[in-house]
Amino acid sequence: MTNLRNLSLFGVLFGFVVVALGAWTRLVDAGLGCPDWPGCYGFVVFPTSELDVAIAEERFPQFPYDINKAIPEVVHRYFAATLGLVAIALSVLSFKQSQDINIRYWCLGLLIFICCQGLFGYLTVSLKLLPIIVTGHLFGGFITVSLFFFIFIRAGNFSVLNTFNIQKVKYIALTCLALLLVQIFLGAWTSTNYASLACPDFPTCQGSFVPDMDFKNGFSFDQEVGPNYLYGLLDNPSRAAIHYSHRVTALILTFAYLVLISRLWFTAAAPLASSVGVILLTQISLGIMNVVYVLPLYIAIAHNLVAALLLITTLTINYLAWRR
């Protein structure tokens, strides 16, 4: 089981890298840096020579070649493919070294899910950044990391976790997990629809605590993409509705986590409570800095990574609270 544990931990860490690369690709507007899939303008990697660039632009005249956008897209694709290879190895290893049938099922489920992620990556390009597909792809990255982490916890069988008896917080822990998943989805939807800067001020939004918003169009999952959805097609009230919803849900989520932390604080799981508090405070700070400093690239990427860290921490608490 040691090899299974180590490989799943590698999958968690490598998954964080893939999430970061996905955020980087999205934030530099490189989702269509390669207009085809799985190649890039018909090449295995991005073209670099003048001749290859000329061939690329001849193949896709409606998508002028930009190497600064092709590089993030290709790097993300190859790292994601490598993560799929890790999942394959993990599945094979689970059948060779584990007698736990549940771990085998989880490993196979992870592999199937990553295959679905690959399909969503293809659809992201072929459907020209259709928002619901891109959001699903971004959200799936967080789920992938969570599945690797869950397998790591199961395979590790860490004795220190047996000292935590926190069943009394299982409902508030589950509530936090559900709200966090909604919040991550809203964060992905905000990024997908280019609404991250729809509210350029804080704590107000466009100078008001209740700005002009259009929730109907902002949360329409069957938008038209036009030639493509690069830079978005929604008007300002629609984007404001998306951004505003992300902020309000963050407030609700913070309150729920404060309840969870207070419940955990006077138990043996107090270190978990401290960890959640620090991660939550960091995430809130990064979200505010994204607005105040106009979405700096590395802060925005960190916002994604800390969200993934908060997710696996919350999963750990739920695992301890709900286990038999």
Globular, elongated, flat, extended or rod-shaped: what is the shape? flat
| Helical residue percent band | 55-70%
**Count of helical segments?**
10
The overall pLDDT, averaged over residues, is 94
Radius of gyration: 21 Å
| Run of helices and strands | HHHHHHHHHH
The biggest beta sheet is recorded as: none
Low-confidence stretches: none
In total, the number of domains comes to 2
Please report which band the strand proportion falls in: under 5%, 5-15%, 15-25%, 25-35%, 35-45% or over 45%.
Answer: under 5%
What gap, in angstroms, lies between the N and C termini?
A: 21 Å
Classification by helices and strands: mainly alpha
Total DSSP E strands: 0
Report on this model:
- The chain is an all-alpha fold.
- The chain has 2 domains: 157 residues, no CATH class; 162 residues, no CATH class.
- Helix content is 69%, strand content 0%.
- It contains 10 helices and no strands.
- The longest helix has 31 residues.
- The protein is flat and about 65 Å long.
- The two termini are 21 Å apart.
- The relative contact order is 0.12.
- The model has no long low-confidence stretch (mean pLDDT 94).
